[in-house]
């Protein structure tokens, strides 16, 4: 039962993932009192919403939480799920944040005096400032026609997928070729499953190129320092899907054309399904071509950087398409293909239904400038492209947290000075 009384506190942080914990660290350094409210256990997404073989797709050296960089013996490797959790646990031990777990925020609203009411299942708070660090992966995107599929087909979304053994015997349709979709596809393929993959418009990236991981080149090129203000696509970059590749077994790129040669059946985007039949758009070749165009574009940018800076790096063979669809299948009969499972991997969306402050646009996306809302005292943290590509990742969330902590400190001191004058 929620209390009718309020605990007054300068700052409430909603969310105990890497973003909320980074904000807590920065505020603790500034001696600003705050509390971190986490619905589950801290780092819940990493613990519970990743499959067993999950690993980072960016190298370990990019793990740069505030004053807590990766210090292991494999900076160019890719931490497994349990190692990521251990990294976060060590970060928490390093400063012991004021963390309250098992606390669900049910509403955040703003009073006429400018303070925020934060209601939870345990206690209500009256805060001068609020940081929303709950992430953007609350609700899996599953089309309405999923309900029309034969109930004998086992359906699961990527956040609940753990391993091939979780699925009933038989073949599998994976819907979505973003980072999660292609990695789950490979996980199933390596387990000996026959996989059908519905390929959407996600781009892909090289892994190793000209002697180094492509992300190393991109870092040196300043790619990760590019802000959304300077990005040629501007706000439209929010709509772009992440490039797919993997860190599995030391890391490698994923060329779906090679998987097609190795037995994975590819289709275009899934456009509908009913009973035991699925229908696909005729866009497979276009989606493969577009993904390759992105892949080749990254390689060319690296080539240009190497040439401009006269860097000695080994040459690479030009990219070649090893397979193309001679005829794009438009339909799939689950029964005939012995498909018993369907994995939805077409993304997530945030749920801000509990946020009763006018800071969302018509599409429900938060409106802010580098995380700072026009409503004074309200901030967002940990979202992709909040400022840079790394804002939603271990690479950039620490810098964003430091920036917001400075904004919070300025307002906090202003509030203290105002109270002092009144008293």
UniProtKB/TrEMBL annotation:
Organism, scientific name: Roseibium porphyridii
Keyword vocabulary terms for this entry: Oxidoreductase
Tree of life domain: Bacteria
Name of the protein in question: MSMEG_0569 family flavin-dependent oxidoreductase
InterPro entries: Auxin_biosynth/cation_transpt, CHP04046_FMN-dependent, FAD/NAD-bd_sf
Higher taxonomy: Bacteria, Pseudomonadati, Pseudomonadota, Alphaproteobacteria, Hyphomicrobiales
Keyword check for Signal: no
One matching Pfam family: Pyr_redox_3
Oxidoreductase is among the record's keywords: yes
SUPFAM superfamilies: FAD/NAD(P)-binding domain
């Amino acid at each position: 039962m929620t209390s009718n009384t309020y605990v007054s506190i300068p700052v409430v942080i909603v969310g105990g993932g890497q973003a909320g914990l980074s904000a807590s660290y920065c505020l603790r350094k500034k001696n600003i009192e705050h509390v971190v409210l986490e619905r589950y256990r801290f780092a819940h997404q990493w613990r519970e919403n990743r499959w067993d073989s999950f690993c980072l797709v960016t190298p370990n050296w990019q793990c740069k939480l505030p004053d807590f960089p990766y210090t292991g013996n494999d900076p160019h490797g890719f931490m497994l799920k349990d190692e990521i959790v251990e990294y976060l646990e060590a970060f928490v031990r390093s400063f012991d944040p004021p963390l309250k777990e098992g606390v669900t925020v049910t509403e955040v609203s703003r009073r006429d005096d400018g303070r925020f009411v934060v209601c939870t299942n345990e206690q209500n708070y009256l805060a001068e400032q609020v940081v929303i660090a709950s992430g953007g992966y609350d609700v899996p995107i599953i089309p309405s026609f999923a309900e029309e599929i034969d109930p004998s087909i086992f359906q699961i979304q990527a956040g609940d997928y753990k391993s091939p053994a979780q699925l009933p015997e038989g073949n599998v349709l994976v819907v979505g070729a973003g980072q999660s979709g292609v990695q789950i596809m490979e996980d199933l393929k390596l387990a000996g499953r026959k996989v059908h993959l519905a390929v959407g418009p996600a781009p892909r990236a090289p892994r190793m190129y000209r002697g180094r991981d492509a992300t190393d080149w991109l870092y040196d090129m300043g790619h990760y320092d590019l802000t959304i203000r300077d990005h040629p696509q501007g706000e439209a970059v929010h709509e772009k899907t992440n490039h797919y590749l993997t860190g599995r077994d030391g890391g490698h790129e994923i060329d779906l054309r090679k998987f097609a040669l190795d037995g994975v059946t590819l289709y275009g985007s899934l456009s509908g399904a009913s009973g035991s039949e699925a229908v696909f758009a005729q866009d497979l070749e276009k989606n493969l071509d577009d993904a390759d165009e992105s892949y080749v574009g990254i390689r060319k940018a690296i080539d240009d950087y190497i040439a401009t800076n006269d860097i000695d790096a080994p040459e690479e063979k030009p990219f070649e398409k090893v397979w193309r669809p001679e005829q794009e299948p438009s339909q799939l009969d689950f029964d005939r293909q012995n498909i018993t499972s369907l994995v939805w991997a077409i993304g997530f969306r945030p749920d801000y239904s509990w946020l009763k402050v006018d800071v969302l646009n018509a599409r429900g996306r938060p409106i802010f400038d580098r995380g700072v809302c026009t409503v004074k005292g309200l901030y967002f943290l940990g979202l992709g492209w909040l400022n840079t590509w790394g804002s939603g990742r271990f690479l950039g969330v620490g810098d964003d947290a430091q920036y917001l902590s400075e904004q919070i400190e300025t307002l906090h001191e202003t509030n203290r000075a105002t109270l002092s004058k009144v008293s």
